[in-house]
Amino acid sequence: MDIHDKLFTEGVEKRVEVNQRALVDKLLARYKGEFTVFRELIQNSDDAKATSARVQVTSTPNGKTITFWNNGSVFTEEDWARLTKIAEGNPHENSVGCFGVGFYSVFSLTERPVIRSGDRDLLFFWRGDQLSTMSRSTEDTNKGWTQFIFPLENAKWEPNFADFANFLAQSLAFTTSLKHISVYQEDQELYSIQKELSAKTPIKLPAGFINTSTPSNLFKFKTVHSIQQQFTMNNIKEGSQQTSNFLLFDATLEVNNADDISNQMERILKKRLPKQTQVRLLFPTSEPQDDMTRSLSPYPDQGRVFIGFVTHQTTGCGFHMACQFLPTVERENIDFSDHYFKRWNGDLVFAAGKLSRFCYDSNVENLFKLYSFSNTTPSQEVSDGITLAFFQDIAKTPLQLPTSQGIKPISKVYLPFHGVEDFVSVPLVQEKDSRFFKVLKQRQLLHEISMKSLIEELKTKNFDEEKALAFMRWMVDGPKRNKVLEGEIKKHKSQILSHFKLKINKKFVPVSDLKHFADKAWSNVPTPPTMLTHDISS
How far apart are CA 215 and CA 508, in angstroms? Predict the structure, then answer.
């Protein structure tokens, strides 16, 4: 009989006990954001299909009380049971919540939270180090609204309400049901934030994009829609309004069931893989002009990854990204540590990169400057995955670029080169200092205009007098300012001079044939074809 058998037959059984206060304190240590409680409540409201929410701060004889309201589905028996079990996450496969610990962030605000939903009230309170509840049945006096009541007692919560309103606006970025949040102090409404959506516009996917697979074959693209989003914040007290517009691309992915990932997901998160999932990218349609727009807009800085709400993870480009990523416990970062979660998350990042390329191709002129492909933090895997997917099929489907001559394929587009572009009629990139074009140059997909292009131009076209004079000044002065240009002109000087023609006595003559120039004495005298006329030489 081995030691295990001996212990089971001869030992004394005793249950392992959990110090619940210490456990909750450790959970709170991972939820450090200023408005963490509200991001959890907003996400829960969206999962409950609420369309409106309200935050109210009131004064009582014992201090302040915060009440959060939403008009979503009232709690079911399953919801009430799950609420009183730590780590009993939402089992619905498409819900954002994963670990069943987010609600417990409310203990950063209060020791005695109360939930009122439907015909039931529930109070949490501490008996020593153990958490207990009291519940009662009551009439549904809230008319379908669910309340979360947090008496602050000795806790301090004195936010800058303008910052809080900006946070709430950002929290609405990817909500599917929740469209409106208001903020009250006592009975006075301070802010009202509203999100309005256009109807979904289906976008025809190009050949080869439908059923495109991700590296681990976990996802295939099925549909893509575009949606116009408008955010409006009303500052009731000041009588001011801020409005911001965005373009949302929403892709539906078919999930290929991977048993090993599904089993791991069910073991840890208590939910199965969904049959379909979404990848959504949010692009600004204008540069930020006010505080709300700056809090929402991913441009000119990098966008963020949203896992229900905003996380620390950046996207590397000027768009926000929302996917059903499997996060770390505090849901602030994507989990790339667990072997199985890494495959799922890595394929979602790749799918987002593919979608970003599709978005680019569908709206090149307005979106190109948002593609910076910068390093991402805290994980570089996001930038690497998006960049890999974006450029993967570049040979089969060349990029189109906005140029001085309209949208052109990248093979026919050039970057400026020390003034050469002033004398060559080829498509040149717009906003040459954009990081996007620098990335294309680094990847050797986009090149500066060359002396070869200039020579070809000189072979086929003759400059008028004004442009010819400008060209000669550039030939003389350019090398003085730039050593690289000096080397290029010296290298191609003979070809340039043999093909560059000036109009002498009504005929175009190669500059290489000119032997003399005329001074003022020749100004009114016919000149031979090998002499540069005075009106040019002067």
Answer: 61
